[in-house]
Amino acid sequence: MNKPLRRVAIFCGLLVLALLIRVNWVQFVQSDQLKNDPHNRRVAIERYSTPRGNIIVAGKAVTGSTTTDIGDFKYKRTYKDGKMWAPVTGYASQAFDSNQLEKLNDAILTGTDDRLFFSRTVDMFTGGKQKGGNVVTTLDAKAQKAAFDGLGNSKGAVVALNPETGAILALASTPSYDPSTFAGMSNKDAEAYNALQKKNDPDEPMLNRALRQTYPPGSTFKIVTASAALENGLYTDVDAKTDSPVPYTLPDTTGVQLKNEGDIPCENASMRVALQWSCNTVFGKISADLGNKKMKAEAEKFGFNNDMIDTPVRAAESIFPKDNRPQNAMAGIGQASNRATPLQMAMVASAVANGGKLMKPYMVDQLVAPNLNVVQQHTPQEMSRPLKPENAQKIQSMMETVVKEGTGTNAKIPGVTVGGKTGTAQHGENNKDNPYAWFISYAKTAKGTPVAVAVVIEGSDTLRDDIAGGKLAAPIARGVMEAVIAGEK
Amino acid sequence: MSSITTTTTIGTFAAPSRRNTELALLVFAVLIPVFAYVNVGLAKDGSVPAGALGYTVGLGLLAGVTHVIVRKWAPYADPLMLPVAMLLNGMGLVFIWRLDQEPSLGKAMAPNQLLWSTLGVALFIGLLIFLKDHRVLQRYTYISMIVALVLLIAPVFFPGVNGAKIWITIPGLGSLQPGEFAKIVIAIFFAGYLMVKRDALALASRRFLGLYLPRGRDLGPILVIWAMSLMILVFETDLGTSLLFFGLFVVMLYVATERTSWIVFGLLLSAGGAVAVAGFESHVQVRVHNWLNPLELVNGGVTETAQAMYSFGSGGLLGSGLGQGYSRLIQGIAPKSDYILATVGEEVGLAGLMGILLLYGLLIERGIRTALAARDPFGKLLAVGLTGAFALQVFVVAGGVTGLIPLTGMTMPFLAQGGSSVIANWALVGILLRISDTARRPAPTPAPSTDADMTQVVRP
User: Fold this and answer.
1) Which residues of chain B have a CB within 8 Å of the CB of A31?
2) pTM, rounded to two decimals
3) Chain B residues with CB inside 8 Å of A4's CB?
C-alpha cells in the first residue's frame, strides 16, 4: 500500500502548493489592483482617516474637516459658502465619492501623493499622523462673490480669466449646490444627494455650467468671425465699408434670408458698425465668404474643437462644426451647430485682450505640502495665437465701441477701458425656447489687462431681442470686472 | 501484504521518542499566539489586554497537560502534530478574539471557542488514554456506517443556515455540525470495509485499454457513495461535504486497491455529478457565478466574496498588522468562521498566510507519514483517510475563500470559529497520534527461542 500512499502524499502536497500559488497571485500580483479598487471601502476609510488638506482661495481655506462618529470614517468634509465655491471645489463625500479638484488632487489632499513621501516618512518616525497638503487656487474671492451674487436666482454661469496668465479668477454656476449637505454618509446626506440629481431637479444644480455645459454662443461669436476676416485678409480696415446686402440670402438656398434684429444700419456697414449693432447679415456673409475651412481653423485657434482643456477640471469640448455653406454662415453668427462653454467664450475675450495671445486657463496655482513646501507651481503657458497683435488691436477698438456706444453700454466702468460684445442665442426648434443671454468683455487699466469675463444666462423669458445680453449679462460682467480692478489697487 | 516488510522505519531498536522536541515546539506554539494576542490589544487599545495572563496560563495549561498525557500514554507518537494543532488552535482563538473587538460583528465568540477548544483537547486526552490500540475501531466498521449515515442525513430535517443545511439545531443548547464528526466516523467505516474487500476489488478485474476495469458488482459501493454524496449536495445544498466524502472514498479506495482505474472512475463520476447538479441547483449556480465574477456588484452593493478579495489584496506582502485591518467589512458571522483566512491574509499578509498554509501542509504530510509507518492495513487506511479528509477540507475551504475554486460552506480546521469543528479535529489528531504511537513503538524483543537452544553446539 505504500506506493499509492506516496502518491497521495504528493497529491496533498500539490493541493497545498496550489493554495500557496493562489494566495501569491491574490496578495502579490493582484494586490495593488484590489487595494485601490474603487469599491474597496478601505480607500474611503483611508481618505477620511485624517483631516483632509484644504482648497485655498486668496489665502483662506474654503474647505474644512470636522470629526464624525457615524460609521467607520473619522472625518467629514465641510465647505464655507459651499454653493458659491462648488463649481471650483467640487465635492468630497464619504458616500458618493468626489469630483473636480477634490478628486483630481485627492492624493495631495489625503497626503498619499508620492511627492509627499518625505513628510510622510518624517511623520512615521515622529509618530505624527499622516497629513494632507493644500491646493492653492488662482480664484479671486471678491470677483467670485460678484459673479455668484450677480447671477442670483437666474440660471447661468460666469467665467473670469486673467488674460495675461490664463488664471481663472471667477467660476460661478447657478443654480448651485452646497457640497456640505451630502459630505457624510447618513440618510440625510443620501436624501440631499438624491434631491440634487437631474431626475429629481430639472435645474441640474450639480451641473458645472461654467465648464461643462455648452451653449450656442450667439452674437458673441462674431468676435471670432471678425478675427477670421482680419487674419485671412478678407477685410483689413475695420472702418471700411463691407459688401453686405440686407437682407442676406444664405448661400446654396432658394431665398432663405438672414435678417437683423430690429431696424439697425447694417447695409454695407463697416465691421465696427456691424459689431456695434450686432449685424447678423454682415458676419453671416463674412463667414460664408471665408468658407467653413478657414472659419473652423480660426475657431480652433481660440480653443474650439479641443476636448483636452484641463483647468485641471476638464472643460466640455466647444464645437465649431464642419458644415455646409448655409449652416456655416449661421455658425458664423454663433447659431446652427456652433456650441461653446462659458470658459471658451471667456478665452475668446481673453485672447483679444491679451494682444492675440491665448493663455492656457488654469485654476490651481500651487500644491503645498503639509510642511508648507511647494510641491508644484503652475507657470503660465501660451496655448495659441489666434490673432496678430495689430489685428488684436483692431478687434479691441471694435469691442470698445460696442461698450461705448453700442449694445453693451451697461458694462461701462468710469475711468476704465472696457471692451465687450453682447449676444442672444436662439435655441429650440423655430426659436421657441427662451434664448440665452451672453456677454463677454475685458477691462484695461493703466497697469495692464487684469480681467476678461464671459457671462451666460439661460431662459431670460422677458427679452427676446439682442438687447438681452446687454441688459441681463453685461451688469454681471461689469460687477466682476470692478471687483477684480478694485482688488488690484 | 508485502508492504509490511518494506516498512523500514520500525526496528527492534528503541526509536527516539522525540518527546522533548515536542515540548520545545509546544513552548513556541503557546508563545506565538500569546504575542499575537498582546499585539492585537496594543494595536486596538494601546494597552496589553486584560485577559493576557489568563490566556497565557490557559493555553500553557492545555499544552502542558496534553504533553504530559502524550508522554505517558503515547510516548512514541509523532512529535510535530500536537504542536502544529496547538499553534493553529491558539492563532484561531486570537483571530476570533481580534474580530470580537469589532462591534459590528455581533457578540463575542472567543470565550465560547476557548471552551470548545478545551472540550476538544479533553476528547483528545480521553482518546489517548482509553483507546489503547486503534485496531479496536475495526470492530465498529458497520456501526460506524450507520452512525455516519445518520449524521449525514440528520441535517435535512433541520432548518438551513445561509442556504446550506449542515446543522442540527437543538433548541436551547445550540447547534451542531454533524458533518465534522461524520468525516471521522466514515473514515473508520471505509478503512474497515476496504481492508476486508480490497483484494476482491483489486484482483477481480478486466484489463481494458491499459486500465483495470472493476467488475460490476464491485462498482456497487463506489456508486452508492457517489449517489449519497450527490444527495447531500441536492438535499443539504452542501457542496463542500459532498466533495469531501466522495474525494475521501476515492483516495482510500485507491490506496487500498493500488488501482489507478479507481481514480479515473472517481474523477469521471464526480465531474459528471457536479455538472449534472449544477445544471438545476440554483445555490450551486450562484456559487459558481460568484467564483467567476468575484468583484461583481449585486444590487449596487459589494458582495462578501468581493470583500474577502479586497481583504486579501489590501493585506499585500506583510499585512496591515494584527488588529489594524478592515476585514470587518465582510459582514455578518462569516468573518469569524468561513472567511477567517481573509483576516489572516489582511492582517499578517501573504507571509503570515503562507505560514499558516504551510502549517496545514506539515500536519497533512505528518499524517501521511503516519500512514506509511503504520504496520497494519487498517491503521494505514484509517490514517490516510483521516489525513485525506483533513487535506481536502483545508483545500476546499482555503481554495474557496481565496477564489481558487467555488466557495463552499465549510470551516478551516482549528482556525475558524465553530465548536463541532474544533472538537472533531482534536479527535482526528488524537486518533492519528495513537496510530503513529503504535507504528513507531519498537517491536518487542524476540523471546529467546527454545528451539535455538536445542541446536546449539555445546563445546565440551
Assistant:
1) 313-317
2) 0.73
3) 254-255, 258
The CATH class given to the A44-137 domain equals alpha beta
Q: Does pLDDT of B209 surpass 70?
A: no
Separation CA B427–CA B433 (nearest Å):
10
pLDDT of amino acid A464 = 56
Question: Contact B422/B117 with Cβ under 8 angstroms?
Answer: yes
| pLDDT digit string, tens, across residues A8-43 | 999 999 999 999 999 999 999 999 999 888 888 888
Per-residue pLDDT at A170? 95
Which residues of chain B have a CB within 8 Å of the CB of A3? Answer: 258
Distance from CA of A110 to the nearest CA of B (A): 18
Q: Among A4, A19, A33, select the one facing B255 at the smallest CB separation.
A: A4
**Per-residue pLDDT tens for A93-129?**
888 888 899 999 988 898 888 888 777 777 777 766 7
Contacts of residue A243, Cβ cutoff 8 Å, sequence gap at least 6: A268, A285
Q: What does the pLDDT read at residue B302?
A: 82
Domain ranges of chain A: 44-137, 212-363+385-488
Give me the residue spans of the domains in chain B: 3-443
Please tell me the distance in Å from A115's CA to the nearest CA on chain B: 22
Provide the CATH topology of domain A212-363+385-488: Beta-lactamase (3.40.710)
Ramachandran quadrant class, A370 (left: phi over 0; alpha: psi -120 to 50; beta: rest)? alpha
Confidence of residue B1 (pLDDT cuts 50, 70, 90): very low
- Whether A466 has a pLDDT exceeding 60, the answer reads no
Q: Cα–Cα distance between B335 and B343 in angstroms, integer?
A: 7
3 state DSSP class of A466: coil
Question: Which of A3, A8, A31 shows the shortest C-beta gap to B251?
Answer: A8
Which value does ipTM take for this structure? 0.90
B142 to chain A, closest Cα gap in Å: 23
- Chain A residues whose C-beta is within 8 A of a chain B C-beta are 1-9, 11-13, 15-16, 18-20, 22-24, 26-28, 30-35, 37, 39-42, 45, 72
Give CA–CA dist B93/B113, Å, rounded. 7
Is the per-residue pLDDT at B6 higher than 50?
no
Q: In sequence order, which ranges of B216-281 are alpha helices (DSSP H)?
A: 216-235, 239-257, 260-280
Q: Indicate if A219 belongs to the active site.
A: yes
State the average pLDDT over residues A47-66.
Answer: 88
- Cβ distance of A35 and B316 shorter than 8 Å: yes
Span A59-85, mean pLDDT? 87
Residue B321 has pLDDT above 70, yes or no: yes
Chain A CB within 8 Å of residue B15 CB: no
How far A6 CA lies from chain B's nearest CA (Å)? Answer: 8
**Residue partners of B188: CB distance under 8 A and separation at least 6:** B137, B140, B141, B144, B382, B385
Query: Is A212-363+385-488 in the same CATH topology as A44-137?
Result: no
Across the interface, do A39 and B295 touch by the CB < 8 Å criterion?
yes
Which bin fits B18, alpha (ψ -120 to 50), beta or left (φ > 0)?
left
Q: What is the mean pLDDT of residues A153-170?
A: 94
Contact predicate B434/B127, CB 8 Å: yes
